[in-house]
Amino acid sequence: MKTKQTVFYNNPPTIIGSYSIVGQKEGDGPVGKYFDKTIIDAKIGEKTFENAEIRMLTDAINGAISAAGIRKNDVDLMISGDLLNQVTSSNYVARSFDSPYLGVYSACSTMTEALNLASTFIDGGKFDTIACSTASHFATAERQYRYPLEYGCQRPPYSQWTVTGAACSILSKSGNGPKITAGVIGKVIDYGTNDLNNMGAAMAPAAMNTMAAMFKETNTLPSDFDLIITGDLGKLGSDILRKLMREQGYNLGKEYIDCGHLIFDGSQMCYQGGSGAACSGTVFNSFVLNRLNSGMYKNVAYFATGALMSTQSCYQGETIPCISHAVIVEGQK
Amino acid sequence: MKTKQTVFYNNPPTIIGSYSIVGQKEGDGPVGKYFDKTIIDAKIGEKTFENAEIRMLTDAINGAISAAGIRKNDVDLMISGDLLNQVTSSNYVARSFDSPYLGVYSACSTMTEALNLASTFIDGGKFDTIACSTASHFATAERQYRYPLEYGCQRPPYSQWTVTGAACSILSKSGNGPKITAGVIGKVIDYGTNDLNNMGAAMAPAAMNTMAAMFKETNTLPSDFDLIITGDLGKLGSDILRKLMREQGYNLGKEYIDCGHLIFDGSQMCYQGGSGAACSGTVFNSFVLNRLNSGMYKNVAYFATGALMSTQSCYQGETIPCISHAVIVEGQK
User: Fold this and answer.
1) Same domain for B187 and B322?
2) Mean pLDDT on B289-305
């Protein structure tokens, strides 16, 4: 069966293990208890924040491998991406694994791009066990996209806070765990937002586009899912998404939440909430999978969202193209 | 059939159309007559070099769509990547197409990463028609990785020259043209080179690693191929590769050439030759496919190679991790 954006899997891969590691702020947030590990020192004893990000990503992959009960050599393929120029963290982490590796770039929607690709490889019998991972770090993202921390720049009220963390899912052709039954590949959508701080407003139309395609192509309604979760639109972005979806004829009720909105609470001064590739990556690989594994959720639609600009494109006056890739995950029967 | 790095396709996709567009210098080079289009003005009338790169990439995709005899709406999926931070050119080009889109990052090996992914999607019956594309531009790459052109920096004799160009292949589940029968996914290899200018020496070990895996896993020898072509090792890098392959027990004879070595000649002052994602992308989508289509080549192994550092990682004293992904392409019987 083939439709325009949704890919259905005849041999749905199983998520046999996962791991999430976050910074202190994320660990103190509303879903803090679900994360596998919280780091206290944002540099984890490394010389640079970039090396700390590499260290977190390495730990997340090794943690997921352990959780899956497999060995490092059982990983047939690694798919990873992150926010840094040239997906540096992922490339440097891949050096320490002896597996074929595919680097992907989809900004904050990296986790779902990786899950989509891995599911296609497993569905087609090309690889048996695939590690999908991503990372972001507040300090590395700030100095690359905006200003180094030392600058002490004031943040606008519609901004979000890049999540410090890393996450990994291990997908397998067999085993116990939730199954990825379908993937939805996003289109690049640009409604003309050009404010580097207003990620939620920029990304909401892309989330709407992919979500509407998913409902149509799977012939479902929001109420058919126990949970519909978006990447990191934050409070403002998820309010915009609810409005845009109403215009498309879909009423997102209490089954809809946003990872960016969920990960921090108002007292943490992160304004609209969390962002960054690790935002939905860590929430999915902890809170969401925990509830799928426990049987609390039977089926989840997970839409990670990404803003695809660079600082260069913004300096040159361009608006921000955005994308959202999704996966549908079903708990064990 | 499944082996460690090589993926065999049961339903091998056909390359039904391709297009290559290059700058003046590339058009003046030894394979200039094979390119579909040569631009005279490096900005193509655009305000910035970045916009010129976006324009070239757009033209390459539209050109390949025309060459394939299909319409823009027939493209089910776009896969693209480039050298710019956050694969900007690809993301901005994707705005103007109404197809699902996957951004990939594999530096100069982007073309073969995209062909590998597209082949897996088509082999599994997920999409019918996929556009795989990449681009690079001397002026955008120089100012991002090294110095802006105005600086007039002197280049060391072991350096290569980033190719200005863009290329696209259209893969289809049916139709006439060469077929991709297998893909090989590379591992990240780092032999400790840390000189941002010496890409050939950095990437040769990664090419060796993937090439040796391919020969072993397909049970072939160099003489079994009409052409073995690497991405952009240049003269120095391809000499190193010949030596490394001899140590692995494989003698690369006259069937082996390197796109970086091929694209410029000595009089063009590009030192070791060409580099950049468009280097092997344009040579494959012109010279190589032309000879596959004419029947001159029956089977080709195409290894694009990529250096996965960022300027940030190099400033921080890191060495350069590299990768090479490959595809095996067979001419029509």
Assistant:
1) yes
2) 97
Q: Is A217 on the interface with B (CB under 8 A)?
A: no
Q: Say whether residue A126 is in contact with chain B using an 8 A CB cutoff.
A: yes
Do the domain assignments include residue A1? no
The three-point CA angle B130-B32-B49 to 5° equals 70
The reply to whether A241 falls in a domain is yes
User: Are A308 and A185 part of one and the same domain?
Assistant: yes
pLDDT tens digits, residue range A204-213? 999 999 999 9
The predicted model gives A176-192 an average pLDDT of 97
Asked whether residue B37 falls in the same domain as residue B164, the answer is: yes
Residue B228 has pLDDT above 50, yes or no: yes
Count up the domains in chain B and report the number: 2
The pLDDT value recorded for residue B1 is 43
Top residue of A61, A97, A126, A319 to mutate, by most chain B CBs within 10 Å, is A126
**Reported confidence tier of residue A14, pLDDT bands at 50, 70, 90:** very high
Domain, as residue range, for B62: 7-172
Could you tell me the CATH number of the domain that includes residue A22?
A: 3.40.47.40
Whole-number pLDDT of residue A2: 53
Distance from CA of B174 to the nearest CA of A (A): 16
Please give the average per-residue pLDDT across B135-152, as a whole number.
91
Please check whether residue A181 touches B, CB under 8 A: no
Question: Do both B193 and B324 map to the same domain?
Answer: yes
Average pLDDT over residues B118-132: 98
Last residue in a domain, options B172, B199, B222 = B172
pLDDT tens for B23-65 read: 999 999 999 999 999 999 999 999 999 999 999 999 999 999 9
Q: Do B2 and A87 touch (CB under 8 A)?
A: no
Asked whether residue B2 is domain-assigned, the answer is: no
B62 touching A (Cβ < 8 Å)? no
Q: pLDDT value at position B305?
A: 97
Q: Looking at the structure, tell me whether residues B184 and B148 fall in a common domain.
A: no
Touching A: B residues 21-40, CB under 8 Å: none
Who among A86, A94, A123 is closest to B107 (CB)?
A86
Q: How far is A94 from chain B (nearest CA, A)?
A: 6
Chain B contact present for A43, CB below 8 A: no
Is B211 in the A-facing interface, judged by CB distances under 8 Å? no
